[in-house]
Amino acid sequence: MKATYIEEHGDPSVLKFGDFPDPKLGPKDVLVRIFASSVNRLDIYTRTGVRGTPKTIEFPHILGGDSAGEVLDIGSDVEAGVIRVGSRVLINPLLRLNPTPQMLGTHRKGSNAELIAIPFENLVPIPDEISYENAACIPTVFLPVWDIVKTKGQLRPEETALVMSGSSGVGTAAIQVIKNVVGAKCIVATSSENKAAQAINLGADFTINYEKEELGKSISELTEGKGVDLVLDPTGARFFETLYDSLSVNGRYGICGVTSGYESTIHLGKLFSKRLEIFGVFMGNNASLLEILEFAKLGAIKSIIHRVLHLHEAQFAHEEMEKSLHFGKFVIKI
Description:
By secondary structure, this protein is α/β, with parallel strands linked by helices. The protein has two domains: 2-137 and 304-333, Medium-chain alcohol dehydrogenases, catalytic domain (Quinone Oxidoreductase, Chain A, domain 1), CATH 3.90.180.10; 140-280, 3-Layer(aba) Sandwich (Rossmann fold). The protein has helices at residues 41-48, 132-136, 139-152, 169-182, 193-202, 215-222, 240-245, 268-273, 286-297, 314-323; strands at residues 2-6, 16-19, 29-39, 61-62, 67-74, 88-91, 94-95, 102-103, 115-119, 123-125, 160-164, 185-190, 206-209, 228-233, 247-255, 277-280, 305-310, 329-333. Helix 3 (139-152) crosses helix 4 (169-182).
């Protein structure tokens, strides 16, 4: 099969395209012909060998987690069900293995390839109305958003949520879930006027350019001093204290990434006096994935795709993503 892989950690130039051995089908695995795979920040971190990359990674290594394709073969121990040969499937990249869950493309060879053998429980069927490219962008961005907004944050229509990094995959997913699924008010914080305009076009009620505006002051003005009911933050340390201070009474703070750093401080007095909640989420389960796909089938939410590239162009996707000028996702078409 053809694949894009690395033989060492480094900058985007370490990505190689060429022939790679076909995966072996285990008794509880399903062999999938991959048609689309999206690029996530985790792919960048794994390529460079930082932020949770296993020290014992086996080279050569194939990157890629989120992906979609067609079932070619099924292992001998896989029970007959909705997943069968010919099924259009979406891969949940979180492998729930003991003792520690693993991510496809980081802890084991991923989906930047023509074929992959994956445990059958990591597959869900894709409705015919959803393209492979659209589906391949869903898991790593919509699953944590769903957990923060719906499952744990329990955002209500009369409330206000703030989304950090509104141009990212997580950010574009969050705007849609907040507006089109919950129907709440949405404030987006982003880094440029162009990104702010695109966030408004996607449905955000207000935007804040945190490179030019004082974030806390702007939040206070937009909420008339009340603060926001929910913060969805994939960035981590840089603005944590400001956003924490901007929570309303009974506010909730959901974290699903640390792109700007790991450590910050918490004012414990505000934690109990304002009855705040802080929680983290890491991906989600297939039940949530099926719910998300139903909303995508109805057209309420969709993957925001910045650019579609071919498998041999994965290096260019990594280079562009590191510049952080994009709005939405990069998709690798295979």
